[in-house]
Amino acid sequence: MRNKTLYLVSIIYLLIPNIIFYLYWAKAALSLAGIALLIHLLHKSILQEIAFPKCIIHLKDICIAAGLALLLTLASGVTGFAFQTMDHWCHNAKFQDLLQNDWPLRFPANRPVMAYYFGYYLVPAAIFRLAGDISLIAILIWTSLGIALGLLWICISLDRKWWAALLVLCVGDFPRIFKGVASHGSIQLYRYEQIGVEHWSNIENLFWAPNQFIPSLMLGGMLFHMIRHRLDYALLCFPTVLALWWAAFPALVVGLITGLLLIFQWVRWGITFRKLIAQIVLPSIAAVPVLLLFQSHPHPPENGLIWEFRGDIDNLLREYLVNTVADTLLFAFAYLIARRAGLPGISAVPFWTLICITLLFPLVRVGKVNDMLLRGMMPVLILIGCCLLYPLASQPLPKVLTILRGNTNCIIIMLALVLPAAVGIGRLYRAARLNYITALWSPPNTGFVAIPYDAYPSLYETLRQRWSKQEAEQYLGKPDSFYEKYIAPPPAKDP
User: Fold this and answer.
1) Which residue, among 128, 173, 165, has the nearest Cα to 147 in the 3D structure?
2) Spatial separation of the C-alpha atoms in residues 427 and 77, rounded to whole Å
């Protein structure tokens, strides 16, 4: 398989739930127009001459990606095989609601459409409706396929070095290692608050938000592939638009990064009006209905400068220094030391753009628990990890060892990049210790028990009873919104 084929398969994977969106989340006329536009954009993606470098993806790498994806899916808790974080109450309730209720989801039945990104859940849910029950195999295969595609993008961009691809997933957890070491010495660097400025690695986010892990992995890997090979950034516009229905914050952040890089590209290369319409404007039009759905909340998400929501400014400053500043200093030093060592690297403009985003994002709160930071940083950390590990992955192992032996700074930076993997290993160990199989020989009432899908009558009740009424109502739509009036009006009531 070639990387152009991987590009098209990734687009089709992200596209299918968007077609379902237009079929069920929009009225008939808009459905036909939207699906026609998506098919046209897919057709252009297939026919256009994409200047991908000739890169063959070997069967061995496909098998490794499939095996790793299956392992990560089982460990994540998605299928109820292994330990599940509390967010799986919500994931399971979405699957159950999509099985039991008409699409688009409304709660109660006469309320507006739920304003949430359901992209990840729709294909398994469609299979559930055909089968008449929850299918764990469908969830397993669908999730594994998405993770495998994302891993392949990262792997081929890092010269098929799987060790580097796995380390990329762990980038961002260095402050947690630092904080853990300090706590063992009875040193409290800062006090944890619900509205924080911590960012989590992608491997940590996998256990909380697998629905957002998949598009973050794919978009991050695709964008780095384009950065490394100096391809046209406009190629990422269509996949980013498709990912909005999967994960709003990661897609918006990738859209922001791609937009900034496109501006630099246009200044250097220029752009034709025809290309602007075909690659930028038309995909943007396809995103409008989904964006209108996101805007149809009764109240906008909580937002503002982070210190407006925190009274503990000293503690907030320490948290920012320990997390954001410590990590960005590590990233900057690693990048500069690799360049000084004469290793090949990527252009400075994309890297320093990512560093600026990492420094600025924690200063603004968007969402109940600062969701823009927690989820929006996922593709950013994928990109930064690829930038930092590419110089080493692109070289033969003997040359890397020679460089490390002769440069103490390189050794320190490499250790700092490897250490965060301890967090990911710890999560995988937890999954290996608490799962369906180990529960078979555990004493009664002490083993792992999977979260049920039908514990509550609806997604709304799950959120209200497990979290709060405020958490539940942030999913509800607004009765007089543009989306509710013109895109998905409620069905006419029987006389």
Assistant:
1) 165
2) 11
Strand partners, 364: 305
Angle between helices 348-360 and 326-340 (to 10 degrees): 170
Amino acid at 417: L
Residue 492 pLDDT more than 70? no
Separation of CA 319 from chain center: 24
Q: Among 48-57, 193-202, 416-425, name the most confident range.
A: 416-425
Burial class (CB in 10 A: 0-12, 13-18, 19+), 182: middle
Q: Which residue has the tokens 């040359």?
A: 399
Cβ contacts of 479 within 8 Å, gap of 6 or more: 111, 112
Confidence at residue 192, expressed as pLDDT on a 0 to 100 scale? 79
Angle at 198 between CA 426 and CA 78, to 5 degrees: 45
**pLDDT single digits (tens) 75-92:** 999 999 999 999 999 999
Mean pLDDT, rounded, for 371-390: 94
Determine the average pLDDT of the residues in 364-390. Answer: 91
Q: Are 190 and 362 in contact (CB under 8 A)?
A: no
Separation between Cα atoms, residue 385 and residue 377, nearest integer Å = 12
The mean per-residue pLDDT over the stretch 381-390 comes to 95
Q: Which two tokens stand for residue 221?
A: 């890997």
Ranges of each domain in the chain? 3-487
Cis, bond preceding 239 (omega within 30 deg of 0): no
The rounded distance, in Å, linking the Cα atoms of 389 and 492 is 57
Q: What is the secondary structure of 190-252 as a DSSP string?
A: ----SS------HHHHHTT-HHHHHHHHHHHHHHHHHHHTT--GGGGHHHHHHHTTT-HHHHH
Helix orientation angle between 162-170 and 59-76, rounded to the nearest 10 degrees: 30
